[in-house]
Amino acid sequence: MMSEGSSFMKGMVLGGIFCLVMSFFENFNSGTHSEVHEHLHHHLKPLSKDELEKLSESQMSDLPLQVRVYCLIMVTPKLLVHWATANDTWSKHCDKSVFYTSESSKALEAVDLQEQDEWARLRKAIKHAYENAGDLRWFFVARPTTFAIIENLKYLVLDKDPSQPFYIGHTEKSGELDYVEYDSGIVLSYEAMRRLIEMFKDEDRCPERGHALWKTSEEKQLATCLKYSGVFAENGEDAQGKGLFNKKSVSSLISDSMGQNPADVVEACCSDMAITFAGMSPSQMQVLMYGVYRLRPYGHDFHDSLTFLPPKDSDND
Amino acid sequence: MRSFKRHILFLSGIVVSVLLSKTCLLVLRTLTPSFAMTDSYTSTVRHGVKNRTAALDLSQKVRVLCWVMTQPQHLKSRTQHIRATWGRRCNIVLYMSSEASDFPTVGLNVSEGRNQLYWKTIRAFQHIHMHHLDDADWFLKADDDTFVVLENLRYGLSKHNTEEPLYFGRRFKPFVAQGYMSGGAGYVLSKEALRRFVKGFADGLCSHDTNIEDIGLGKCMETMKVQLGDSRDVLGRQTFHPYPPHYYLTRQLPRPRPWYLLYEHYHPVEGPGCCSDLAISFHYIDAVQMHTLEYYTYHLHPYGYKYRFNPDERSDNRNNN
């Protein structure tokens, strides 16, 4: 009787120790994981007015020259009207804007990547942009159904060093993965681009054509490749925490605000320094162009510390 | 010798007539009061100084009374959005309806309906003349689906004398010999024009001879010798608009005038050149668009952007590329 009991006890003790050791080991592992995940900035905001005012005269005049943006606009002939609208409106405010297409169109100029797969096309465009960047250090990736206010993008990254990895936009979560939504535009620094292109060589972690039965969207594939190279998604927002990158149209956001904040529709809706809107029709985009760059009340001045000049040969801004 | 003299006389005749007609045209052009005039009547605008105090100065020097043509059924769906946006920028705002209410609305002794619109206009102006003549300098009429930028209206009016019989808006050609201003786009009367309108009805010179309020008012203005002003900016771009922005701004291939531009007195421009940066009004604006335009005009801003159009810096206009 006694030996049966003690073996039982020995078994229990051994089992107990085993469990303890296992759980201790697991904790140790997840501890290091969370350290890797933890990064300093999840929410990225622009310089404050005070910080801007502290800059010297020479720093002030240098800044607009240092923050220069290369726009990659991913088009297809199906989106011809939006393509033409992006070409005629906001893309003129990029320091360099290049349209990358799946197949060429006689109507509009673009770099023909001759690639139907969206992820493969994005990879090619990114490589092309990096190789043709010249001295531009910030990259903005968008579809022509997005409208971007480049001056506000520049303001957001004004004090950020492009030789550091930055991957900014409207962030969403998919399981463990934080990714930037494609529809509201993706901002990448020069360093992020460099690391990404390095990672493109890794066919296991960042394959060009997935082997899975289902296809992951390009925005998630991009986030995964960047994550493996130590670059994490950050949400672009203003000083009040309002998102600057929007995947909805202005009227959609206003309409939502009318339902949720009827007493303060415009205040609650959208940032004064908004960078992107999406899902707008071509004519709505032309109205937005007028609304951003022209329509204003006489006598109101924003007292901005920097100046960005209007682009040459443009009649709608 | 005689044929030589004849030739000389003939040639000098041509020269004189050319000079005369050019002078006539020049005189005629300066005779039309316009928003593009560069001499400021009230000289509140100082060169190079652009901040909110310029806008505040103007609101004290150029007082505008706005009256909005509305009805009880529209207060919730339309008028409240005006009250939340541009209505509060008027020096005085009156919401005119068939019934008085706590909105607040002024009750006119008129019933509702499209055929009552001119009666409403007549009664509204009579009410304003009786109660508010000295409270403002200019008197704006707008619909409950019109969006107005008051600062730009004041800027345009600042160059004019309210004691003169003047009226501004979007000028239409037909129905009235001298033309008339579109009702939907909003129109504004000087103090003297308001006096003459009311006097016209009091003396029987004007009467309710149509249901179409903008034509009716336009006819009375003509009878009472009130002059139509030119509200276009220094680049000839329109400020009052009877339709929403996308009707005008969308680029078009050269084409015959679409139906909504058929009444235009001034030659219309389609595409970006249609509309002034300092636009004053748009019409057929629903609730969502009202707040959207408010956001575009007063909030959404491209950081540091140097605007191309700077009407106070005259040299800029020539360098516009």
UniProtKB/TrEMBL annotation, chain A:
It comes from the Eukaryota. It is a single-pass type II membrane protein. The keyword Ribosomal protein does not apply. InterPro entries: C1GALT1/C1GALT1_chp1. The keyword Disulfide bond does not apply. Transmembrane segments: none annotated. It is found in: Membrane. This is C1GALT1-specific chaperone 1. It comes from Cyprinus carpio carpio. The lineage of its organism: Eukaryota, Metazoa, Chordata, Craniata, Vertebrata.
From TrEMBL, chain B:
This is Glycoprotein-N-acetylgalactosamine 3-beta-galactosyltransferase 1. Its main location: membrane. Residues 66-231 form the Fringe-like glycosyltransferase domain. It is found in: Membrane. It comes from Cyprinus carpio carpio. It catalyses: an N-acetyl-alpha-D-galactosaminyl derivative + UDP-alpha-D-galactose = a beta-D-galactosyl-(1->3)-N-acetyl-alpha-D-galactosaminyl derivative + UDP + H(+). Its cofactor is Mn(2+). Glycosyltransferase that generates the core 1 O-glycan Gal-beta1-3GalNAc-alpha1-Ser/Thr (T antigen), which is a precursor for many extended O-glycans in glycoproteins.
